[in-house]
Design brief:
Number of strands of chain B: 2
Oligomer: heterodimer
Order of helices and strands of chain A: HHHHHEEH
Structural class of chain B: mainly alpha
Distance between the termini of chain B: 55 Å
Largest sheet of chain B: 2 strands, antiparallel
Distance between the termini of chain A: 10 Å
Number of helices of chain A: 6
Shape of chain A: globular
Shape of chain B: elongated
Radius of gyration of chain B: 32 Å
Structural class of chain A: mainly alpha
Strand content of chain B: under 5%
Largest sheet of chain A: 2 strands, antiparallel
Strand order of the largest sheet of chain A: 1-2
Strand content of chain A: 5-15%
Chain lengths: 144, 768
């Protein structure tokens, strides 16, 4: 798949992609209470990159991402595993969810938790997996 | 305790960073951890000497009755001390031995993980966590043996070690599960204290055989001994660690650990004595047929392992004392000798001792401590090895079965190791000076530290026998069910049968040693014959068959036709699930009146039907993909209609990406040609209809039947208070069933890696 020559798509992609990525982070963070979550957010984020890829080509998309998607994959799995252990340190069974409430300036509280870390892991794995496949497929396309 | 066991893994994580800061001093720095662990374990000694065993428990998966619990008694503490103590010197030694090696960081990572897993094996109280650590030692030792991964030989040896030990590991797992089921607890401390008489249980024989298969493969007993000498392909620090304190001792440890529970059976005594005795003799004999310093030592390790297993099998009080003493003595001298073999190799550039000579003048310190360690190996007074050997003879004389055979084997083995000790201590250092590929000089401090300390300890413990007696042997005997106050070690027992046996073997050994060089050619012939017909040949035969069966089943099952795969998969599912459905549920199905109350829902259903039909009859691929997409979006609409927004969003996103992926693949396919005959198409239709009907029936059955109250109500109720979340779908994914999700993201990652490698390997093939 070579990059598209449509000016409209190129321009639209340039504006839409940051919004989509922002939206994916939004979905990720609110996922525990409202519709959303790591899996959906990961799909949205990879959709954003794929849209960019369709309009500007694989090479541009790769350099935009800066890291190899395979590294994202590995990082996601590591996040997922890392969320398992904090419970052990406070003496709970493995994988018990841990919550930390941090008071924020201005009266709010920041809720941090191991499920959030886990969700970030899911997010990164999904993005990494899809982009690994899409990049590999479209790379083979442009090489052939 | 938890931190003590896991600290090795944690340090392994940051070891590369330590190496990056200072390559020169990384070995010394990292060695601080095992040194600290040694001190920490030693601090448990007084308590264990006074009060016996302690159990420390941490919950791990309480739902599955898997605890991370640690059992600290004489036996585990002795092993922990050996592992951490020798580990300290190994890390220091590795810093010198692998100086300037580009992959030294990787070495430290795996080495530390290996040490930590070994500590886990000997300290675990839970059978399952013991097994996990056990397998971890197999995996890390695989990485260590194959450290030099560009060397074909190293790779093959590593794989061989892994296959043999992992095959045994599977048997061991079966054995441990049986053990847990019979006694009703997976905690070792409960198993040992259990009132059930294991040897009278009908499962005892399979249980025993499974456990022995695991321990014999790990501890290199005949006929599984062949992997251990081949593991010499590893860098010397690894061999030294593997042989002296870890890996192969894991099997010995487990046998000793279980001996109070299982040792009362005759089968146990017979098998352990027989296999141990044979291993002992064969190892000693093979040792003198080799001229490579490391090989020679490797076979003498096999001899020692055989001795230990035999002593556990004999199981008398003397045997237990002999077991503990011999084990300590062996760990000390074997660790020292392996490090010395590495020094010789490093300094002279050759592994063959028959090519060395007269090195004593150039390397005086090495020479002195080699002689000390070798004397312990040869069991000469006043070293600890002598005490161990005397006790061993004493134990063999009191053996309940096979007494005569074992004495012959023991004397033979004694002769063998004495010759081996002579070869390793005298050939390289004394006699005529010979030219070697490199000009040797004294090894650096980091490499000498280990041999010097360990060999000195062999001497010190031999002279001051009350130290090992009080601190180590006594508690070990207690934990094996013996009486510690009856333990008394001494160098001189008066002129008795064991002493005469020692003398006899010394005389024969001297005779053989004198003619060692001249005997080599005929011994080599024997060795080759053994190689051709021995168990290792059997291993290669099995591996060959494995490949052959694998390629046969690949040809049959994976013939490359996508359609065949699909038909096989779908029809298998239809048959198995359909049979279960009909036999369990029966064919009476109530078709519920569709709850679609609006024209909108009906039109979505119609749209789905039309798009499905179009997808199956169209000749355009793009059309098929697009109509499948329409179908998917309609499903998403249904989800939204029935107020499941999470599912709806997911469905839409998945559908979008599926279409994108399909489109990417689509362009790589050749144009649409109809290749299948009408008959084949008819068959495909039948298969498709079967699958569709089955799914419909399944869904109908699922909505029809309600065996249990749905758990959704309970999960909804628990979601906010327990998991601090209001979105139940997400709470289930990341909290309630997080283990499942963790598994799924691993599957996802594997799938991505699979796609990636498939596409890229294909591309490489085409280029070449």
């Amino acid at each position: 798949m070579n990059e598209s020559n449509t000016l409209i798509l190129r321009t639209a992609a340039l504006f839409l992609m940051p919004l989509q990525l922002l939206f994916s982070v939004f979905l990720l963070l609110r996922g525990h209470d409202e519709p959303g979550g790591g899996f959906i957010a990961g799909l949205v984020a990879s959709g954003a990159v794929v849209l960019f890829l369709f309009s500007y080509g694989v090479r541009e998309a790769r350099s935009l991402l800066r890291v190899d998607p395979r590294d994202l994959l590995a990082a996601g799995l590591l996040f997922g595993l890392a969320s398992v252990f904090p419970a052990l340190l406070v003496g709970d069974p493995l994988m018990t969810a841990q919550w930390w409430y941090l008071p924020m300036p201005g009266g709010g509280t920041l809720k941090l938790s191991t499920p959030l870390i886990f969700d970030i892991g899911v997010y990164l794995t999904v993005v990494g997996a899809i982009l690994t496949m899409v990049f590999a497929l479209s790379q083979a396309e442009s090489d052939a | 305790m938890l931190i003590a066991v896991l600290s090795g893994f944690l340090l392994a994580l940051i070891a590369p960073a330590v190496c990056a800061v200072s390559r020169e001093w990384a070995g010394w720095t990292l060695a601080l951890l095992p040194a600290a662990l040694f001190a920490w374990f030693a601090s448990y000694l007084p308590g264990v000497m006074a009060d016996g065993a302690q159990v420390i428990t941490y919950p791990w998966f309480p739902a599955l009755d898997i605890q991370l619990s640690f059992l600290i008694d004489g036996l585990s503490l002795m092993f922990a001390l050996l592992i951490s103590g020798i580990g300290t010197f190994i890390l220091i030694y590795a810093g010198g031995y692998l100086k300037g090696h580009p992959d030294i960081a990787r070495f430290y990572v795996v080495m530390l993980a290996f040490m930590a897993s070994m500590l886990g094996v000997v300290l675990s109280d839970n059978l399952i966590s013991l097994f996990v650590f056990w397998e971890l030692t197999s995996i890390t030792s695989y990485l260590l043996i194959g450290f030099d991964h560009e060397d074909m030989n190293a790779r093959r040896s590593a794989l061989q070690g892994l296959f043999v030990t992992a095959a045994g590991g599977l048997a061991l797992m079966a054995g441990l599960v049986m053990l847990g089921t019979i006694t009703g607890s997976y905690a070792l401390s409960d198993v040992l204290a259990s009132e059930t008489v294991l040897s009278e249980h009908p499962w005892f024989t399979p249980l025993l055989l499974c456990v022995l298969a695991g321990c014999f493969t790990k501890s290199a007993q005949v006929p599984f001994h062949f992997w251990l000498p081949n593991a010499m392909a590893a860098p010397t620090p690894v061999s030294a660690f593997l042989h002296s304190a870890t890996m192969v001792k894991a099997g010995v440890y487990l046998l000793a650990r279980l001996s109070p529970a299982m040792g009362d059976s005759e089968l146990w005594t017979l098998l352990l004595s027989l296999f141990g005795g044979m291993t002992m003799f064969l190892g000693a004999f093979m040792a003198i047929t080799h001229t490579g310093a490391k090989k020679l030592l490797a076979y003498s390790t096999i001899m020692a392992l055989g001795t230990l297993v035999m002593l556990i099998g004999i199981g008398t009080h003397y045997a237990m004392v002999a077991f503990a003493t011999f084990l300590i003595a062996h760990s000390l001298y074997k660790g020292a000798l392996f490090m010395i073999a590495g020094i010789l190799d490093h300094e002279t550039g050759t592994k063959d001792v028959s090519e060395m000579g007269g090195l004593a003048r150039l390397m005086p310190i090495t020479a002195i401590f080699t002689v000390v360690a070798a004397l312990s190996l040869a069991a000469v007074p006043p070293l600890l090895g002598f005490v161990g050997k005397e006790l061993m003879f004493e134990a063999v004389l009191g053996a309940p079965v096979l007494g005569g055979l074992l004495i012959v084997l023991a004397v033979g083995a004694g002769v063998g190791v004495m010759v081996a000790a002579g070869v390793i201590a005298i050939k390289p250092f004394f006699g005529e000076r010979r030219e070697t590929p490199k000009h040797p000089h004294e090894a650096p401090v980091s490499m000498l530290a280990g041999p010097v300390v360990l060999a000195s300890l062999s001497l010190l413990f031999g002279l001051a026998l009350f130290i090992p007696e009080q601190a180590l042997v006594g508690p070990v005997v207690t934990s094996l069910g013996g009486a510690a106050d009856k333990v008394h070690l001494s160098l001189w027992h008066g002129i008795n049968v064991p002493l005469m046996l020692s003398g006899l073997s010394l005389v024969i050994a001297l005779a053989i040693f004198a003619f060692w060089s001249r005997l080599q050619p005929s011994l080599a012939i024997l060795r080759e014959a053994g190689g051709r017909f021995g168990p290792e040949a059997g291993y290669f035969r099995i591996m060959e068959w494995l490949t052959r069966i694998a390629s046969w089943q690949t040809r049959v099952l994976q013939n490359g036709t996508m359609g065949n795969y699909l038909i096989t998969l779908v029809m298998t599912t239809v048959l198995i699930t359909g049979y279960t459905l009909l036999s369990q549920h029966g064919s009476t199905l109530r078709v519920p009146v569709p709850a679609l109350d609006s024209g909108f829902a009906w039109s979505i259903a119609l749209l789905m039907l039309v798009s499905a039909l179009f997808a199956s009859i169209t000749r355009s691929r793009l059309g098929a993909v697009a109509s499948m997409g329409v179908m998917g979006f309609s499903v998403a609409l249904i989800f939204i209609l029935f107020s499941a927004p999470d599912l709806g969003i997911t469905q839409i996103l998945v559908e979008t990406l599926t279409v994108i992926l399909l489109v990417l693949v689509l362009f790589r396919l050749p144009g649409f040609i109809r290749l299948s005959s009408p008959l084949e198409r008819g068959r495909d239709i039948v298969v498709a209809i079967f699958a569709g009907v089955l799914m419909t029936l399944l869904i109908l059955a699922a909505t029809d039947l309600q065996f249990f109250d749905p758990i959704s109500a309970e999960q909804v109720a628990r979601s906010a208070p327990d998991a601090h979340g209001r979105n139940i779908v997400n709470v289930i994914l990341v909290d309630f069933r997080a283990l499942d999700t963790l598994g799924e993201i691993f599957v996802l990652a594997l799938a991505a890696v699979g796609v990636y490698s498939m596409i890229n390997l294909r591309a490489e093939d085409q280029r070449s």
